[in-house]
Write a structure and sequence with these properties.
mainly alpha; Serine Threonine Protein Phosphatase 5, Tetratricopeptide repeat; 12 helices; 75% helix; globular
Length: 217
């Protein structure tokens, strides 16, 4: 009886464990994400092991899930975990650094965002998104002159991104420079409508024209 039980234990253990390849996990995760089941998708992406070649991509996707859920602390934790993995080359390092800064900005912890971005821009000085989020952090601290410089740098490195044009336009409007504001908003609207929906920018233009644009909007 005891022999039988002992012999069956390994079989029972194997029956409980089902191996899932990274491809299977990624497929399940993408299906969940497409269905807007972001928590389920997050869990599946996080199952992909650090030793797998898809590890960094899986953590970027996990961050997208956490972002959709508004879980900024989770974004910071996942990005820091990915940055701590010692591999010969991390092709997504700048993405993780920027994700941390975005999360801090979302939490209105702009000083922390600036600390992260200062280090990040030393390594990736031409990464437009870091300059853009640096501008967002400065604007959140009401350091508008610094914000203008950051948004200008973002435009320099990625002139086809509408958001730095739009945010620069807001600051110009707040400062009473309506001509520059209109130029920025027009450029942002042109870029946005060519790739998506420019309705929000058109609303801002209307508010500007009617004198309803508030400094804290």
């Amino acid at each position: 009886m005891w022999v039988t039980a002992i012999c069956l234990l390994p079989v029972a253990s194997q029956a409980q464990y089902v191996y899932e390849s990274p491809q299977d996990l990624a497929k399940k995760a993408v299906e969940a994400y497409t269905d807007e089941r972001y928590e389920d998708a997050f869990v599946e992406f996080m199952k992909i092991n650090k030793s797998d070649t898809a590890y960094f991509d899986s953590r970027i996707d996990a961050i997208l899930c956490a972002s959709a859920l508004g879980h900024n602390d989770t974004i910071i934790d996942v990005a820091n975990e990915a940055l701590s993995v010692k591999k010969h080359y991390n092709p997504s390092e700048k993405v993780f650094i920027n994700a941390i800064a975005v999360a801090y900005n979302n939490k209105e912890e702009h000083e922390k965002a600036l600390e992260v971005l200062e280090d990040g821009l030393k390594k990736y000085p031409d990464y437009a998104l870091m300059h853009q989020n640096q501008g967002t952090a400065y604007a959140g601290l009401k350091k508008y002159d610094e914000a203008v410089k950051s948004f200008q740098m973002a435009i320099r490195y990625d002139p086809k991104s509408y958001l730095p044009h739009y945010k620069l336009g807001l600051i110009c409007a707040y400062n009473g420079d309506l001509t520059k504001a209109m130029l920025c908003f027009n450029m942002a609207c042109l870029i946005r409508t060519s790739s998506g929906n420019g309705t929000a920018i058109l609303v801002t233009l209307e508010e500007l024209g009617n004198g309803k644009l508030e400094k804290d909007s």
